Amino acid sequence: MPVIFSLGDGAVTIDLGNQLSEALNGKVLAMNQWLRQHPFTGQKDIITAYSSLTLVFDPTLIKAHYRPAHTIFEWVRDQLLDAYHQSGATVSQAPVRHQIPVFYGGNDGPDLAALAAAKGMRAEELIHIHTATVYRVYMIGFLPGFAYLGEVDPLIAQPRKEKPVPVAAGSIGIAGSQTGIYPLPSPGGWNIIGRTPLQMFNPQSQFPVLLKAGDEVVFYPTQGL
Amino acid sequence: MSLTIIKPGLLDTIQDLGRPGYSCWGINPGGVMDGYAARIANMLVGNDPGAAVMEIHFPAAQILFEQNALISITGADFTPTLNDNELVSTWRPIVVRRNTILHFPQWVQGSRCYLAVHGGFCVPQWLDSYSTNLKAGVGGFHGRKLEKGDELPFKENSIYFAGLLKETREYQPLNWRVDTGRTYQLPHEIKITTGHEWSQLSAASQRDMLDSNFIIHPFSDRMGYQLRGVPLKRQVNTELLSSGVSFGTVQLLPDGQLILLMADHQTTGGYPRVAHVISSQLPKLAQLRPSDSIQFQLVDTPTAEELLFSQEHELSIIQRACHDHLNQLVW
Q: Which residues in chain A are closer than 8 Å to B301, comparing Cβ atoms?
């Protein structure tokens, strides 16, 4: 059964289990879809993560509009339980698949050589393994449009670095069994193996981020134009 | 209809009540740090509480009003002064004459103040909000802090209010001000509710969190306050998958120290959430500064909700009173 807890007096989280699992993430996205289709007055934001969903709300609006008998927390908890029971196992649409070109190694992937060496393989093998998986976008967080993708082949999984270093926009990194793309220049601790020329975050666009939770991503090596 | 920054401050940005609704894209809500002061600043000049305001840190900008304007300054007290010598009060509407310069020579208390102008600042909205997202470089005034020479237009003219200026004076405070009541009282006592991982703290650490003082480290900003105090111990060491966090979340870092997430926090985080500062105390928290100390006080959820409702009720009374006062002046 899911655990529901307060995240302060303006947000409630439903946690389906602290596990990186496609099934749990699918259920999170299904609840997200259901809540967006059945919004209540005072619903402000929804944060979806690997295996949890957080509903952010305005307690004063809920009180004025619904006059709940008990606390606002209990009222929102009931909305989340409803969403849990009423939503399906996953979202109704088929996932969108993105093909992402990557310049591997060199200045674009400063950690590629060291990572390959640590794994006892040639850089080409590591690239081959990284491009052979269809990744799932589990969540967007950390930065606008930063996609957490899973899971990388255990052969190339690597813990994040001890200390964050400056990372360029478009950089593709590995941290544990996750891989991800930095949409903006930022300090970061992921092992950077390449960089994509695609813009992951464009504030001027009507849809400012390229990837969404539930999408699929396939990387392919490119040498540029 | 504008004002110009003639000398930039440390960090002055255009903000509103934030940009909720886009966390699914990793875009945080941001917005003002002290929502209570920012809303009252707007109410005092007859604006919608969510109009764009200027959030000002110390050392603050010097500002030239190129038009007559009805303004208010709330939040921190940085001794707002007009044309070198006229100290003006905070939490009060003031009519200023064109070519008046506003500056803030001295810090007295608080961390950030809010400047509102009648009509609000005219900047484009990004994703339904005027707030500046500094990390993404978008929103507010060109996605950045205000610099020398920036010219900020107002949405409306304060023509009605200009008639209140006496010929000999550069400015005219109107004869009412807002009493902030309980909101900023006992500034170092911060009320929290327990977070989901509170029960994972050892009993001694739970006591330490409630009985000892925590100091706000200089390395603190709009994203979060780093706290220094007795290191706290978690009894389990399971790693948590990233999940949602909110303004006021208190996270436990691996070294046993705490971090308090503020307005510009990321949408998600993976550190244990040991507590959450209750919403009605975020304004008070937003006015604390590095090296200030905090004592946490535990309250339950019904209490947190009641305190928020009472603050919101007070704000609705202030809004009505400001509206009535201004209407009587104009008509």
A: 6, 9, 71, 73
Q: With CA atoms as reference, report the closest residue to A80 among A40, A108, A119.
A: A40
Residue found by looking up tokens 């392919």 in the block: A220
| Span B118-141, average pLDDT | 96
Neighbours of B329 (CB within 10 A): 17
Helix (H, G, I), strand (E, B) or coil at B86: strand
3-class secondary structure, B235? coil
Alpha helices in B15-90 (DSSP H): 35-44
Which tens digits make up the pLDDT trace of B214-261? 999 999 999 999 999 999 999 998 888 899 999 999 999 999 999 999
Give the one of B23, B25, B305 whose C-beta lies nearest to A59's C-beta: B305
Q: Would the pLDDT of B72 be above 50?
A: yes
Stretch A194-216: mean pLDDT: 95
Q: Does B135 touch chain A (CB under 8 A)?
A: yes
pLDDT digits (tens, 9 = 90+) for A13-70: 999 998 999 999 999 999 999 999 999 999 999 999 999 999 999 999 999 999 999 9
Cα–Cα distance list, A182 to A17, A144, A167, B74, B322 (Å): 27, 9, 8, 38, 47
- Which residue segments constitute the domains of chain B, with CATH numbers given? 2-180 (no CATH), 186-299 (2.40.100.10)
Task: Indicate the residue of A3, A71, A212 with minimum beta-carbon distance to B305.
Answer: A71
CA dist B31 and B130 (Å) reads 8
Q: Transcribe B253-270 into DSSP letters.
A: PTTS-EEEE-TT--SEE-
When pLDDT is cut at 50, 70 and 90, the band that residue B331 belongs to is low
The interface pTM score, or ipTM, of the predicted complex is 0.95
Q: Which domains does chain A have, with CATH numbers?
A: 3-86 (3.30.1360.40), 97-221 (2.40.100.10)
Q: Helix A72-86 to helix A22-37 angle, to the nearest 10 degrees?
A: 110
Burial B231-252 (b: 16+ CB within 10 A, else e): ebebeeeeebbbbbbbbbbbbb
Asked if B22 reaches chain A (Cβ–Cβ under 8 Å), the answer is yes
Cα B140 versus chain centre, distance:
15
CA A137 to chain centre: 5
Alpha helices in B97-189 (DSSP H): 159-162
Nearest residue of B to residue A15 by CA position?
A: B243
